[in-house]
Design a protein that fits this description.
single chain, alpha+beta, four-stranded mixed β-sheet, two-stranded antiparallel ribbon, 10 strands, about 20% strand, elongated
């Protein structure tokens, strides 16, 4: 299986569809691309949200492929949770395959998963991909909270008058806070409140930068320029 072509992943379908379940949380996350990705737990859902909010991730596919392997004379099949295609770097497109598991399950039952993970690592290395196990320690972070908050602002229509005024004030102030920027840009509280959704849209779209790995508040530092995460 080869997915090195830039547009290949967008055309792929999951090898196994995720249906409704009464024993676990299932559903779909609507992605920024307009497509959707299914999940089988709240942890998978949260990881999909993190990936979707990462501007370096170009495409996401759940249940991307299955890998057959032998264990104690038995033929077993392993389907990883998520495959992400990242922006092209140095002439190649990085692919990362993710397994999403609770930390205690990995720690206590690692022997159960050892062989399948070993096979997946080998499979990914042969294709110059990466395989990574992520747990709630990687996922349930301030970045996830910020992604959940900001995602709804990404698709807002640009309010050009507010945008230009906020950019003008931010250039004049340099690194500042949302609260100070709005106070600089507008005298009246009503105008500040009206401009706030546009400011969050600009942060969500990376037009205005902040430390997204820290809790986002009205007192967070924001600036123009390349995001430092």
């Amino acid at each position: 299986m080869k997915i090195c072509e830039k547009k290949r992943l967008d055309l792929m379908s999951p090898v196994r569809s995720i249906g409704m379940s009464y024993r676990s949380l299932t559903g779909k996350v609507v992605l920024n691309s307009g497509h959707s990705a299914g999940f089988e737990s709240s942890l998978e859902r949260d990881w999909l949200i993190c990936l979707d909010f990462d501007p370096d991730v170009e495409a996401i596919l759940e249940q991307p492929f299955s890998l057959n392997y032998q264990l104690d004379g038995r033929e077993l099949r392993y389907t990883p949770d998520v495959l992400a295609q990242y922006r092209e770097r140095d002439g190649r497109i990085p692919i990362v395959v993710f397994e999403v598991k609770p930390y205690d399950e990995v720690r206590l039952d690692f022997a159960k998963y050892r062989q399948r993970f070993k096979q997946m690592i080998r499979y990914c290395r042969e294709r110059d991909w990466r395989f990574k196990i992520v747990t709630e320690r990687d996922i349930r972070t301030p970045y996830l909270d910020n992604a959940k908050f900001l995602r709804k602002y990404r698709r807002l229509a640009t309010q050009e008058l507010y945008r230009e005024q906020l950019l003008y004030s931010l250039r004049a102030l340099g690194p500042t806070t949302p609260q100070a920027l709005l106070a600089m840009a507008y005298l009246h509280v009503e105008k500040r409140m009206a401009a706030l959704p546009e400011l969050w849209r600009m942060v969500a779209r990376r037009e205005v930068s902040t430390e997204l790995n820290k809790p986002l508040t009205m007192h967070s530092t924001i600036w123009l320029g390349i995001q430092h995460e």
